[in-house]
Amino acid sequence: MASDFEKFQPHGLLKNGHAMTIASAFVRRRFDLPAAEDRLFQVDPESRILGRCHWQPGKKRTAPVIAILHGLEGSSESNYVCGIAEKAFRRGFHAVRLNQRNCGGTELLTPTLYNSGMSGDYRAVLEELANGDGFERVFFAGYSMGGNLVTKMAGEFGDALPEALGGVCVVCPAMDLGACADALERRDNFFYQRHFVKGLMGRYARKAELFPKRYPRNGFGVVRSVREFDNKITAPQFGYRDAQDYYDAVGAKKVVAQVRVPMLMITAQDDPFVPYELFLRANPGQNPAIRFLTPEHGGHCGFISNHSGAERFWAEQRIVEFCDALRSA
Description:
The chain is α/β, with parallel strands linked by helices and 329 residues long. The chain has helices at 17-26, 79-90, 120-132, 145-157, 177-184, 190-210, 226-237, 243-250, 276-282, 314-326; strands spanning 37-44, 47-54, 65-69, 94-98, 138-143, 165-171, 263-266, 290-293. α7 (226-237) crosses α8.
C-alpha cells in the first residue's frame, strides 16, 4: 500500500494529462520569497549561468542549499522553480533558482546554445557552492529537461559522490529524448510542439543577432518540430551526426542505474510527451538509491492536487520533504 508520502490525489477537474499540464503552466501564482541576489556561476572558460539566490539570514554554511533547474524553454521564473524555492526557504534551506545557458535573458553570458547533455554545468555549480562557498549540504531538483540533466550528473558521479551532495530530486525527467521527440509529433501534442519550436527558434534568432559569425540566420529551411530543430541546429552545433545521435548520447537513461546518491524521481503515467513507457524500459525503480513515484495522473510537471495550502502543488512538497529528511544524513 502506498504511504501518505506517495499518494497523489489530483484536482477533480484535472484528471486529464493535457488539462493538468496546461493548468500548471498557466495558473497564476504568487510567491513569498525575499529579494533574490544574482549570482553568476562559471561553468566553462567562456560560459556563465545565472542563479537567483535566496540566502538564509547570515548565510550559514551549515544550512542546506537546494539548487533548482527548469525544463526546456523555462527559466528561474518558472512556477515550479519558485514554488520549490519558497517551500524550501520556509524550512531553512538556501534556495538557488538556476537558469540553464541562455535562459532567463542570459544569452550574452555564453557563446553556445544549450542542450540536454550539459550536466557538467551543474557539477560546476556544485563545486562552487561546496568547495568555493563552503556549504556543507547541497541538493538539486530538476524538472523535465532539467530532470534529465541532474539525473545524468548523479549517474556520472556513480560511487565517487562528492561529500556535499545530499540528494537529487527529479520530476518527469526527459531521460529518453528520442521517445519524447516522437511523442511530441503526435497530433494531440501539436500545441506543445508549436510552443517549444517557437521558443527555440526565437532563442536561436537572438543568438544569431549576438553572435552572427557563429550562427547563420538561414540555410536550414523551415523548422516545424523539436526533432527538426535538433537535426538542423543542435546536433551540428555540438558535433553530433544528427538528432538521434544527440539523443542517444545525452539521455540519462544510460546512467540511471549508476545513481548512488539518494534520489526522488516522480513521473505521471498520463504525461503527454515524456512517455511513461520510457520509465518502464529504464526501470529506475530497480535502483535502491531511487524512490520512484508514478501517480496515474499528474500530466507533465503538473501534479496539482485536490488539497489546498502547501499540498496543492504535490510534487514540490514531496521534493522539499525528501530533502529535509536527508539534510542531516
